[in-house]
Amino acid sequence: MSKINTATIEKLEKLTMICTNVEEKEQLVKNLNDILSYADMLNEVDTSAVNITPNINGESNKLREDTVKKDYDKNQMLVCSPLEVENNSIKVPKIL
Length: 96
Fold this sequence. Notes:
- The protein is mainly α.
- The protein has helices spanning 6-16, 22-43, 74-79; strands at residues 85-86, 89-90.
- The chain has a two-stranded antiparallel ribbon with strand order 1-2.
- A hairpin with a 2-residue loop joins β1 and β2 (89-90).
- The two termini are 49 Å apart.
């Protein structure tokens, strides 16, 4: 995995619009590199004998059947509009 350096921190500063001083940059470089080292250590663990667990509590998604329901009548819905209707569409005020 790539290492973090002060140039990376400076790129992050521009992206996040956060300013740090030299001491904070050095501390960030050290902390982020420690995190990446720990992640590298986790990559070395052999998980080939571990079963995939999609859900920790054993439940699964309860799916329902797709059923066709009656649509609302467009003209009936347009009549309910408090705004002006023009060409079978609701005319809304300009925002700009």
